[in-house]
Design brief:
By secondary structure, this protein is of the alpha+beta class. About 30% of the residues lie in helices and about 25% in strands. The protein is built from 17 helices and 22 strands. An eight-stranded mixed sheet has the order 6-9-10-22-21-20-17-11, sandwiched between helices. Helix 4 packs across helix 16 and helix 7 packs across helix 12. The N and C termini lie far apart (about 65 Å).
Length: about 575
């Protein structure tokens, strides 16, 4: 056999045993008559000692080993003279009696260590080497443990893991689809699923009652740290449930994973916040509640003082930043520049410094008296030493900008530690969102989301005020997942399609098989999908989901390791009845 133990197994209690290890050469160093080789495999690192005085030929062979050589070593476990407290195997070493090179290696393009000297592009090109590094390996192992615990919890609660198709029909209402040409049906195309939404609803119509899968999903959209063109969802659906049933079930799942994978036990129920309150107090439907600085509205207090920015604004609101009244003019100017960035879009920033001695300094002192500004201070609950940051403008834009400023201040004050987790549910989302450009409503979630039963009478008379029976689970300002109760009544679904601008013919063309299924007794049902990659990155305390995946794409959607996407051979294009045209054509 190639090994009797792994490179992470052996301890002092194994002293004197004859063992065989196989693995990679992490590093080699020669000190006098001794050559020390660190051997590595998935399980750990063990030091191997070659002694020239005992076996000079073997020692010479060891001196020729290069980094990442694959070797097999036999020897005896001995207590290490100079112990390494940073390694689980740091109390022992192997006194080698034989060495076999199983495979040589070229010099790797970067060091296979936690603090590597390889840049992102280089490590992505040689991802199979990058995955040998301990940190990445730990992320993949974490991913495995989380998948196991998710399956264990859902199986214990009666869910069946059922696979749904990867080649489906394009329904271009959400993000762009990835499309796949059909050779057997020239001129026709499959799409890769953005989610298994329709199929999991059909499984409820089929009577399976509780379904889940770790589903591959595909979206052709611009990428960022928490997006990849292909990603994994923990996709679930349940029959005969209301919103409370779904929330309780999946709050239990999240708690289970935190407890069994991270050792964190959430004893209390997760807080709940309406979408309206999330926007009013945090400027985001995924608020980071690890810290305070919630918005305080000042609109009525600031109007009518000759300061046009505030006089003309729909909303004036601010945040109270604790202990920052000592900020310099340079620092407040930096914050002003921050909110003026195009992606944030504020026109300016008003600040008030409430000194430790209760003095008041403000950027708008010529428009407002000290007493008037002290009214703001009282309203915002400021203490001596605090800094007030205030924005004015149109409601949605001001809340968005103030939300970004709040997060920036939370980061600057180190109030967003990655090892602290603050979960909550956001509920009562709007069912529709209005698009000014196309002058029509779009589904905020998807066309199958049920309206809040209390708001059904408003569907035609006050469409924009209809709330969805939808819910998101948010942790640390990240939307971990979301779902809704689905429409199971055919007439209500027809109304929904009509309000979204679908003609009966178009609705039948895109969703006919689901609408037809509903005619045969669809149960009340609902579900939720968790972003599995995001969940892993959260527990790994990472900023990006990329290092939770074995083989991710870069920010351009390319796999630089296998060089995809790539052009097709002309013969393949002919077989698929496809012709490429230039931009000019």
């Amino acid at each position: 056999m190639y090994r009797t133990a792994t490179c992470g197994d052996l301890r002092l209690c194994d002293q004197g045993k004859e063992v065989t290890l196989s693995g990679w050469v992490q590093r080699s160093r020669k000190l006098g008559a001794m050559t020390f080789v660190d051997m590595r495999d998935r399980y750990g690192i063990t030091q191997v000692v070659f002694n020239q005085e005992i076996n000079p030929e073997l020692c010479e062979d060891a001196a020729r080993l290069g980094r990442e050589y694959v070797v097999q070593v036999t020897g005896k476990v001995a207590e290490r003279t100079s112990k390494n407290p940073h390694l689980p195997t740091g109390d022992i070493e192997i006194i080698a009696s034989s060495l076999k090179v199983l495979n040589k290696s070229e010099i790797p393009p970067f060091t296979i260590e936690e603090n590597t000297d390889g840049g992102d592009d280089l490590r992505m090109k040689y991802r199979y080497l990058d995955l040998r590094r301990p940190g990445l390996r730990a992320n993949i192992e974490l991913r495995h443990r989380m998948a196991h615990e998710i399956r264990r919890y859902l199986d214990a609660n009666g869910f069946l893991e059922i696979e749904t198709p990867i080649l489906v029909k394009s329904t271009p209402e959400g993000a762009r689809d990835f499309v796949v040409p059909s050779r057997m049906n020239p001129g026709e195309f499959y799409a890769l699923p953005q989610s298994p939404q329709i199929f999991k609803q059909l499984l409820m119509v089929s009577g399976f009652d509780r379904y889940f899968q770790l589903a591959k999903c595909f979206r052709d959209e611009d990428l960022r740290a928490d997006r990849q063109p292909e990603f994994t969802q923990v996709d679930c659906e349940m029959s005969f449930v209301e919103q409370e049933d779904v929330i309780q079930m999946f709050e239990g799942l999240v708690k289970h994973v935190f407890k069994h994978v991270k050792g964190i036990d959430f004893a209390e129920s997760f807080p709940r916040m309406t979408w309206a309150d999330a926007m009013k107090f945090y400027g985001s439907d995924k608020p980071d509640t690890r810290f305070g600085m919630t918005f305080v509205e000042l609109t009525d207090l600031v109007k009518g003082h000759g300061f046009a920015v505030m006089d003309d604004a729909e909303l004036t609101a601010g945040i109270c930043v604790p202990g920052c009244a000592s900020y310099t003019r340079k620092q407040t100017d930096e914050l002003t520049d921050f909110v003026k960035r195009p992606q944030i879009g504020a026109k300016g920033l008003v600040w008030v410094k409430y000194g430790e001695d209760k003095s008041v300094k403000s950027s708008v002192g010529k428009f407002f008296s000290e007493d008037e500004i002290k009214t703001w201070i009282d309203t915002m609950g400021a203490n001596p030493g605090d800094l007030l940051l205030i924005l004015s403008g149109q409601v949605a834009k001001t809340r968005k900008a103030l939300g970004e400023l709040r997060l920036e201040m939370g980061s600057r004050l180190e109030l967003r530690p990655k090892n602290v987790f603050s979960p909550l549910w956001v509920i009562d989302f709007p069912l529709f969102e209005w698009d000014e450009e196309t002058q029509r409503y779009y589904a905020m979630h998807h066309p199958f989301t049920a309206p809040n039963p209390e708001d059904i009478p408003l569907l035609r008379s006050d469409t924009g005020k209809v709330r969805a029976t939808a819910y998101d689970i948010v942790i640390n300002g990240t939307e971990l997942g979301g779902g809704s109760i689905r429409i199971h009544d055919s007439e209500l679904q027809d109304t929904m399609f009509e309000l979204l601008g679908f003609t009966p013919e178009k609705a039948q063309e895109q969703f006919g098989f689901l609408m037809n299924a509903f005619k045969y007794g669809a149960p009340p049902h609902g579900g939720l999908a968790l972003g599995f990659d995001r969940f892993v990155s959260m527990l790994a305390e990472l900023d990006s989901i990329r290092d939770t995946m074995a083989f991710p794409k870069n920010n351009s959607g390319r796999d630089v390791m296998n060089e995809s996407p790539a052009p097709l051979d002309p013969a393949q294009l002919d077989e698929l009845c496809l012709k490429l045209v230039s931009d000019q054509e």
